From TrEMBL:
The protein's name in its UniProt record: Dehydrogenase
Swiss-Prot/TrEMBL keywords: NAD
InterPro entries: Gfo/Idh/MocA-like_OxRdtase_N, Gfo/Idh/MocA_Oxidoreductase, GFO_IDH_MocA-like_dom, NAD(P)-bd_dom_sf
Gene3D superfamilies, per the entry: Dihydrodipicolinate Reductase, domain 2, NAD(P)-binding Rossmann-like Domain
Organism taxonomic ancestry: Bacteria, Bacillati, Actinomycetota, Actinomycetes, Micrococcales
Matching Pfam families: GFO_IDH_MocA (PF01408), GFO_IDH_MocA_C3 (PF22725)
Domain spans labelled Gfo/Idh/MocA-like oxidoreductase N-terminal: 11-122
Length: 401
């Protein structure tokens, strides 16, 4: 295998040539990822292999991920395979000393992601990243900077309504594995919303517990969730809510973060309004006596004297965020540039999605340090009821791609 630091070019192996794998191959072929070329492609589906050959005639195409990784054609790999296979493919790469970027989500349940993280700890010198492309979105990067710098004070509450995932029934009917417990591992939480679950925790912190009301097959003929309302508890009175669905034709994307010295409101993941109070809210409240309150209610005090506001708009060209994460992965391999998203970060979103499921199944609040074996038992019960796919193991899954 050519040493990428010597050649100056990273040959990426794309494992799985579906919509995502095909998109990454096109970005690289079109030159959107400097210092990266498509080294090889693997897919178990003969039709997809034929498509890969037709679209990338000079690129070797393999039947299995193992054959690709054991070839001399790649310096790194990305796992664009079904969710259940992400950990197994990641482990296989790490064991071979091949830098790996795992697609989101890192897995379906925490036990298998822990297996992946343990492998990463065993091979700490092998680069391990996850495709959280929204962390490359300048809007959310700016929000994180503001929060981390304390510009809106301590977070008191956050709310995210993200229902811009409208999916008609035909979307679910196009593949036998889609929207099944055994094939996909869930619905909107594992398919559409992982990026928001990651960003929410990346910016606002990992909660202690969650209580959720989840509807399964609510407005679609599917077994998994198509509507979610979750309330999380961060401790010290700090809470958050997360609402998502796939049956809202119009859709809403609104993210609010309330701090004790300001507020952030994001609309449509494009526009953000930052409010900064002149003093912490409690100080402003304590300084107002009865006469001030009376003048406030009569409209004699201009509330805008108590804060400043800034509105920012962001645009992002199609493919820019994904290709930017791939370029960051290249730079990390070649010169040690810090990763936008460490592979180990992938477990946070999986854990929260699992906790939301488990809370709805048990009908009670669930801590984020729930028993992973209990979750897997509940998941396997639903897989067995489906009767379409084999049940899952706690660790050690090595299913071929």
């Amino acid at each position: 295998m050519t040493t990428p630091s010597t050649s100056g070019v990273v040959r990426l192996g794309i494992i799985g040539y579906g919509a995502q794998g095909g998109m990454y191959a096109r970005f690289i072929a079109d030159g959107l990822v400097p210092s990266m070329v498509v080294g090889a492609i693997a897919d178990i589906d003969p039709g997809k292999r034929e498509k890969a050959v037709a679209e990338h005639a000079d690129v070797p195409v393999f039947e299995t991920a193992e054959a690709l990784m054991d070839s001399d054609d790649v310096d790194a790999v990305v796992t664009t395979v079904p969710h259940y296979l992400h950990p197994a493919m990641g482990i296989a790469a790490l064991e071979r000393g091949i830098p790996v970027m795992v697609e989101k989500p890192a897995g379906v349940y925490t036990a298998q992601v822990e297996d992946l993280l343990n492998a990463a700890k065993t091979y700490p010198d092998t680069p391990f990243a996850i495709m959280f492309n929204q962390r490359n979105n300048p809007l959310y990067q700016r929000i994180k900077e503001i929060v981390d710098a304390g510009e809106i004070g301590a977070i008191r509450r956050s709310n995210w309504i993200i229902t811009t995932w409208w999916r008609p029934q035909g979307y679910y009917d196009q593949s036998a594995w889609r929207a099944t417990w055994g094939g996909e591992g869930g619905g909107v939480l594992v398919n559409q919303a992982p990026h928001q679950l990651d960003l929410w925790q990346w910016i606002c912190g990992v909660p202690r517990s969650v209580y959720a009301k989840v509807a399964y097959g609510f407005r679609r003929d599917i077994a998994v969730e198509d509507e979610v309302t979750a309330v999380v508890d961060h401790g010290n009175g700090v809470t958050g809510t997360f609402v998502t669905a796939t049956h809202d034709l119009v859709g809403t994307d609104r993210f609010e973060i309330l701090g004790d010295a300001g507020k952030i409101v994001v609309e449509d993941s494009k526009r953000v309004t930052i409010t900064r109070l002149v003093k912490p809210e409690r100080e402003l409240s304590d300084a107002m006596g009865p006469d001030d309150v009376a003048r406030l209610f009569r409209g004699q005090i201009d509330p805008t004297e108590l804060y400043t506001q800034e509105t920012l708009e962001f645009t992002s060209e199609w493919g820019q965020q994904h290709s930017g994460v791939l370029e960051n992965f290249v730079r990390h391999i070649l010169d040690g540039t810090p990763l936008l998203a460490q592979g180990a970060d992938g477990i946070d979103g999986v854990r929260l999605a699992n906790a939301i499921h488990l809370s709805s199944w048990l009908g009670r609040e669930v801590p984020l340090d729930f028993d992973p074996e209990q979750y897997l038992a509940e998941l396997n019960r639903r897989i067995a009821d489906e009767g379409l796919f084999p049940q899952r193991e706690a660790t050690g899954e090595r299913t071929r791609a």
